[in-house]
Amino acid sequence: MTRISEVHGIKAIPADEYADRGREVKPTGYVPYLSLTTGEMLLQLARQRAEILAQWYGSDAPQYQQAADMLTKALQTGIHAGGAVSVGAIPDTLQNVARLISNAKNRTAPASASIFARTDAMKGIGAIIPAEQRRFDCLKAAKHPADIAKCEKAFAIENTINKYLDGTAHHLLYKSIPTGYTIPQEVAIKRNGHRLGVEGMAQIGRINDYDLMYQWVENGILATNAAGKVGPIGSVESSLYLAPDPDAAWAKFKSTYPNSYNKWTGMNGPHIGIAPAILAGLVALLNAAIALAAKMLTDLQKVDFKALVEARGFGTPQFSGNQNDWLNNGNNPNVNIGNNDLIMLALLAGGAYLLAD
To answer: Dmax over Cα atoms in the chain, in whole Å?
Structure first.
């Protein structure tokens, strides 16, 4: 996955502007993965990130809207029907968007192994057919009772994940803290649970590329933060806000992963420590996500009672990230887990990975 480049020359955005800018940020929108190829879903999620950042930064960073427009055009044209663009024909700031589109062109497998609710008329996904119409078409084409049941189940799951994803995403906040990074034991334990939650949603939707689900959840965190008073920051930086000394935690993390974060920190200056209201906003979003996660679990288990069973405690306060997780003491020592379950470092920048030099 690629990163968004530094916004050269952008002024630091004062914290008292966050609420006004947040009102410009719209919900991420429906991801109709049952009708998408893997490549299309990749670009759909990339477009979401670009739109979130374009809405929040506005004219201070026009390249985000340019990226969103470029991705929209590719999706409307149909990336598997000549929609990829020439890398050499666009500005340097958008070169990685062009590469992403070109790479997505060959990813033609269905995004979900459940069903592929697609007609020949759908050359691109600029104006995707509504879920209820796609469900009706699926049922109409069904030849056996088993096919009918498969259609009903697949669309019920797609609708449920889309309904709750944005509001629930903070319940999985620790998912992208890298394996091998020293963190308190409680954070490491919950990180494992949060990853099981992400991958459990991928499993019930039969989204075989788990990275797509990680990106989708990251978009939910980014959008919800941006729409609130937290600002457009992603999961890892949000996690470090919960530490007793967020500035020190962020400085340590940046020094450990300088190549992944030097562009992101240049976007808006340091977010860490600039306003107590940001931490308060983050805590409020974490608390709100608990109840929504419980509702999501209930709705998913109505369709499949095994949904998210491995993510034990999903939908409870004990599963959620909180400030106490970061209190280092004899009962919560620092640990450094081996690199046997790495999540792509590109996820760590929380939306700051769409464009690059």
So the answer is: 62
User: The whole model's pTM is what?
Assistant: 0.88
Total domain count, the chain: 1
Q: Is position 342 within any domain?
A: yes
Inter-residue contact 114 to 205 (CB < 8 Å): yes
| Rounded CA separation 317/265 (Å) | 31
State the SS3 of 201-213. Answer: HHHHCCECCHHHH
pLDDT at 343 (0 to 100): 39
In a domain, 5, yes or no: no
In a domain, residue 2? The reply is: no
pLDDT at 130: 81
Tell me the CA distances in angstroms from 326 to 11, 185, 189, 272, one per residue in order.
Answer: 32, 9, 12, 16
What is the SS3 assignment for 173?
Answer: helix
Sheet strands (E) in the chain: 183-184, 334-335
* 79 assigned to some structural domain: yes
The SS3 of residue 19 is helix
Q: What domain range is 167 assigned to?
A: 15-349
Q: How confident is the model at residue 321 (pLDDT cuts 50, 70, 90)?
A: very high
pLDDT (tens digit, 9 = 90+) per residue, 229-267? 898 889 998 999 999 988 888 888 888 887 665 333 333
Q: In Å, how far from its chain's centre is CA 199?
A: 13
Q: CA of 248: how far to CAs of 56, 119, 242, 265, 328, in Å?
A: 27, 53, 12, 15, 14
pLDDT in tens, 273-286: 556 778 899 999 99
Helices (H) and strands (E) in the chain, counts: 12, 2
